[in-house]
UniProtKB/TrEMBL annotation:
Domain named Orc1-like AAA ATPase: residues: 28-187
Protein name, UniProt field: Orc1-like AAA ATPase domain-containing protein
Transmembrane segments: none
Pfam families the record matches: AAA_16
Record organism: Bifidobacterium vansinderenii
Length: 402
């Protein structure tokens, strides 16, 4: 006969919540419409029709990475080619990730005839690429674009060859890019250009990207025509009814929350998927019975807050320079989600022009973003509350790579 300790261990082993960056929950509640859009693109591709790419923008913790992973799975399950990478500021890394992703996607192709055709296309591009140095000399940069690199020319040829082959087989190539705003300018321009030219040639190449709220502006700054190439969609926190539904669906296979416990969880999580997973998991772990009572939510609350502090806030605080931490403290002290540059400078008792470089550094490092000219907001929901509540030391180690 099982004792209480054993039952407790079994129950906790069934915890359906998965707090953590990019970890996929069993139920992607509240994002059904986005998945329908991907279903439509997949269906159009198989029918031989082209489509715009997709760009999702939003704060940290709203589930952009999870959404991209789910969409990638839908593409591969549909028998199409998918490549995924998280953009960095290192062009060599990002190019290598794309080329490696192409190789893996081709080798996973189950249709032997198509796989052999794609391998032949890559082989042809590799044979031509040895002459890239000669070819590159004939390409001059336009007035506002950087000169193409050998890697960019190889990528352009490879995508065109692959997509020409894929179209004959009613398939397509999907490039999923997370943190797209971090991508080096030259490679970003190349990828935007590919979406443009492949669309003009009616070839099945799709960029499905996600990033911070400033991403649409970054893309149009890179290439002005980018605003016409993608369907831009904002991803935010879930409304109350969908937040409630997410908790109910996630736990339905193993237990349920009492009504007052569910109400408290909805309030705590504020509709942010990362918060939903953290508070839901902590309440589940703190419970000794089913349905899960309010007392378990209360007991798990500080545990969830610690998970959020470690996973969302502390690491980002450490990424900031001492001067940036001072600037963020000033932002947090104002107590508003949207702060004007003049308000922050006033708190710092310094002229706006004197702290403009610090502001720019916070934006470039992804710690903050500018929703509109002259204003600034944290890229992570709750960052200001963390700074006011935890009062992290300004002397903490600075670990951002230059």
């Amino acid at each position: 006969m099982e004792d209480g300790k054993t039952r407790h261990a079994i129950m906790h082993g069934l915890n359906p919540f998965v707090p953590g960056a990019g970890r996929q929950p069993k139920d992607l509640a509240g994002r059904e419409h986005e998945l329908e859009i991907m279903d439509r693109i997949i269906a159009r591709t198989k029918a031989g029709y082209s489509n715009q790419g997709l760009v999702y923008s939003g704060l940290r913790g709203v589930g952009k990475t999870v959404l991209l992973l789910k969409m990638r799975d839908m593409v591969t399950e549909g028998g199409l080619l998918a490549i995924r990478l998280e953009a960095t500021q290192d062009p060599k890394h990002d190019y290598a990730a794309i080329f490696e992703g192409v190789s893996k996607a081709i080798l996973k192709e189950r249709d032997k005839s198509l796989r052999e055709s794609l391998l032949a296309a890559v082989k042809h591009v590799n044979e031509v690429s040895v002459h890239i140095g000669v070819l590159q000399a004939s390409f001059g940069p336009s007035r506002d674009e950087e000169a193409p690199t050998s890697e960019s020319l190889v990528l352009e040829m490879m995508v065109e060859e692959l997509c020409t082959t894929l179209k004959k087989h009613n398939s397509g190539l999907f490039l999923f890019i997370d943190e797209f705003q971090e991508m080096p300018k030259e490679l970003m321009g190349t990828i935007i250009g590919l979406q443009h030219t492949m669309g003009q040639d009616d070839l099945p190449f799709y960029v499905i990207a996600a990033g911070l709220p400033n991403l649409p502006g970054v893309l149009t700054k890179s290439r002005s025509y980018a605003e016409r190439l993608f369907e831009y969609r904002q991803i935010g926190s879930l409304p109350e009814n969908e937040t409630r539904d997410c908790y109910i669906k996630t736990i339905s296979r193993v237990s349920r929350f009492e009504d007052d416990a569910l109400d408290r969880l909805v309030t705590l999580s504020q509709g942010y998927p990362y918060f939903i997973q953290a508070y839901g998991s902590a309440a589940f772990e703190a419970s000794d019975s089913s349905p899960i009572p309010l007392s378990a939510v209360d007991k798990g609350e500080p545990v969830a807050r610690e998970v959020l502090d470690r996973g969302l806030y502390e690491s980002r605080w450490q990424r900031a320079r001492p001067s940036e931490r001072e600037y963020m403290r000033a932002m947090a002290s104002i107590g508003k989600e949207l702060c004007s540059s003049s308000e922050i400078a006033e708190r710092l008792k310094r002229p706006v022009s004197e702290v403009a470089r610090i502001r720019k550094g916070l934006i470039e490092s992804g710690l903050a973003y500018a929703p509109e000219r002259g204003y600034l907001s944290f890229s992570v929901p709750g960052m200001g509350d963390f700074i006011r509540r935890a009062a992290p030391l300004p002397e903490q180690i600075y670990d951002r790579k230059e």
